[in-house]
Every structure is written in structure tokens, then in C-alpha cells.
User: What shape does this take?
Amino acid sequence: MNVLVIGGVAAGTKVAAKLKRDNYNTNITILTKGKDISYAGCGLPYYVGNVIEKQEELIVNTPESFSKLTGVEVFTEVEVTKVYPDKKEVVALQLKTNTTNTYKYDKLVIATGADPVKPPIDGIDLNGVYFMRTPEDAVSLRNSVEAGEIKRAVVVGGGFIGLEVAENLASQGIRVSVIDLADQILPGFEPEIANYVENHLANHGIMAFTNTGLEAILGEEKVEKVKTTRRAMKADAVILSIGIRPNTAFLADTGIELSENIAIVVNEYLETNIKDIYAVGDCAVVSNILTLKEAYSPMGSSANIEGRILAQNLNGKKLSYKGVLGTAVVKLPELNVARTGLTEDTAKAEGYDAVSVVTVVDDKAHYYPGASTFFVKMIADRSTKKLLGLQAAGKGAVDKMADIAVTAISLNATLEDIKDLDLSYAPPFSTAIHPFSHTVNILLNKINGEINSITPREYMQGKAEGYKIIDASISPGIAGAPSIDLSKVHGELPEFNKDEKLLLVCTKGKRAYMLQKRLKSFGYTNTLVLEGGTAFNEISL
Assistant: This one.
């Protein structure tokens, strides 16, 4: 069997290596447009920030080392320009010689990835304009930083890569601004989480300007300013991170089905609609585990998983790829942020009776050095109690919060199924009741009526209007608000009517909840707890 793989990096090399390992008699050829066959694309921002010190550390395998290790034949700087499914052959341009060759195949794997979107604006080709897709991009930007050529930088795009680049530039003493046309940074995150992150970045010197579009890049020979829909901004460098576009233009007239964003549509076996042609990685669109709808997930993790499954299928198995949940994690200055599953809004749009809770929970034993907090939003279906999504922010290991949720969602678990999991505990790692379990318990309490609360989003929408704010913190800090010390509440409070609307607010939400339970036992019927407390909300009287 002759297997031809178009593209390398993550998905293509994974297919080739796994297939050759399981069946060494298979003839496998990789054609890739770039000079490198396998590099750490997700590590590029950290090379810019000198976290990854050496350029060679970005290269996972050279073409020569990969061929020797796996037995796969590799041709670099070869661009496939045409695919002829009826003849089972492709035509490719040899970029070094500007000549063409034809390659035959029995099975064709398309793993051509995606390229950064390059907007058609003035100044896009000036010196000082950078992308962040290949090792050469990262090397070029870092060289300019180390040469002292960059004092101010504007990052266009507030997604993961853009914010990672912003963090790493800021760590090198560069003044960084981020602009994004959307109304929030971190697409796919809950608005309240994104807003918290935006404020956090501002506190660390990275200013994010949302609802701000890039109109032009100004300068004579190199970048001097950027013109936005808001105002002009001085800059020595512009880093464009406004999205990627699947590399599928060469498939025109092949009959291969493409999605709206021109990614290749595949089924659960990674097959295209044309026999013996498959697609994996950033050039393909898969499905969402929860909604079963098309989902574009250009992540190194999913690319590798898809590649491994496809290799086994090419070797005679029939394994299905269940799909993605939109899982992601990003490191920012003194803050990590993670997500998985559906947001509250997407869950409602999919017909779920979505209910959410926002918690502020300890990430490890509060007395252990370095202990901090997680800000968590968890979403479930009210009637079935099925877990639908989770987002978390904090200094600690937010990835473990997301990964537990991934496992639960993938196994179709309910909150009842996961509330008492035997999760690992020791003071340096967690709390006795794990922060994930803690959040599950609070959401169950909310569904079951054990707590009457209002979310940060509802508070911002004015749904606490008419309620008197009560400061329930150990050390009251809400100016102008009356305070109640939980430890002194052992009976009715004559200063409040039992049907009076009281919004109970403390630092994290726990003490307000305990006060609500206490007041209920004394006949107070109209209290609400503000989820997230003053740690997550901006309180206004």
C-alpha cells in the first residue's frame, strides 16, 4: 500500500509515524511545503519571550532524523498544487527548482494545516509586521526584540496566540497593547471570565482594546503607527494574530466537500466524501461531542489524536473519533485560563435548560505557601443535571479543572455522578474537598434550591435592583453597605424585615451562603447570594 501524506508538523507526521510503526511494509511519503517537517508551533510565543532559549528546541524532528527514525520518505519544499482523485495522483511544485512532479497514491492523507489570515490593508508588508505561525516568525520577532528595535508593540487579535505573544513581549520590557474587533478578548470564553482577564491584563501593563478594528499600518519603511477604528497608536511592531485559514485552495475542482470556513469535512473515521482520501489537523473540520455539529479545532492536541486514529484505520481498523469539546488553556501574566464544553449561551442555543454557577475556590490548602484561588464557572442542564461546560481562571493548575470536566462530559456524566469523586489530595496540590467537587456541590445546591443566588452576569444586568446590599465579609469593605457578622447571628435581626430583599455579599461567596442558610432558619425569605463575591464582581451601591 502506497500512502501519500500532504503536510507535516503535527497531524501529518503522526499519521506517518504511527502507520509505519504498526505496519513497516507500508510505503509512506510525506510532501510538505515548508523547510521543517515537525516543529513546536505552540511553543513559538515562548521562544519570543526567551522561555525557550534555543531555536533548535523548536524543531521536533528534522526531515533527516524523522526519516531515519520512522522509515518514512520525506520531501520538503514541495507544494502540492493539484489533486486528481479519479487518477489517484497529485501534482506538486518543487519550490527549489520550480519544476513539477506527479505522485501516485493508494491512500491520500491531507494534513496541510492552515495559514494566518493576512488582511488586505495598507502597510501590511512594512518591516516590523509579524505573524506567529512558523519558527522563522518567532526567530525574526525575537531578533528584533534583542536588537532593541522594539519598544512598543501592538498585537492584533485577543485569542490564545495573540495573548501569549503579548505576555512574552511584555516580559521582555516591551509596552504592549492588544486590539480586537470583537466585543471581548478570548473568543469562546464566557463574557464575565473574559472581562476579568482583561482587567487582570491591564493591571499587568497589557492594555486590551475591544471593539477596535485595524484599519492601516503606517510608516515609511518600517512600522511607526497603527490606525484603528478608535484612534492611532504608536508602535514599532505589529503582530497579527487574527485567525487562520485552512490550506485547501489546491483542492478546487476535486469534489472534496469543504465547510463554510473552507476546512475539509470528514466523518468520524476521518474520511472525506471521496474514497481513499482522508484529512486531519488544522485543515479539517470535525464534530463537537455535545452538539454533534461541525467544529473547527485547530489544536496540536486534536491534530495528534486524529492522526493516531487515522493511522490505525489505514492499517485496517475501524476506530471512530468522537470529536472535540473546544478545550483550551492559556498562560498569561500570573494567571492561567482554561475552558471546555459549552458556554451558558451556546448551551441555551442548543436547547438545554442551562444553569450556571460562579465560584471562588481555593486551589490548594489555604495554609500552604503559594495557595491561591480559582475563579470557576460551571454549566449544567437543570433537568438532567448533565455537566455541559466549565471555565476556570487562576494562578494555579486550571488545566486539571478543565481536564476533569472533559472526562466527565465525554462520559456523559451528571453532577450527581461526579460530586464525590476520589480525587487526589495533599496540601501542596488541592483542598480536602477538591475545588472541582466544591463547585459541583455548589451548583447542585443551586439546582436543588439549597442556595438562592445571582450570577455575576445577572448582577451586571441589574437583576439585583431593589435589593439592599449586605456586606457579609469577615472584614467588611463595601463602603456604605451595612454589614452582618455571621458569628454573631444567633437569632432574628430587628434591623431587617423578614421579607426584605437582601443581597448578601462577601469576599468569595461562601460566607454569604452560610449567612443565607442561617437567616432562612430564622424566617428570612428574600435573600440572594452574589456568586463570586467581591473577588470577582465590581460592587456598586
Remarks:
- The first strand starts at residue 2 and ends at 6.
- The chain has a mean pLDDT of 96.
- The CA atoms of residues 397 and 490 lie 39 Å apart.
- The two ends are 73 Å apart (CA to CA).
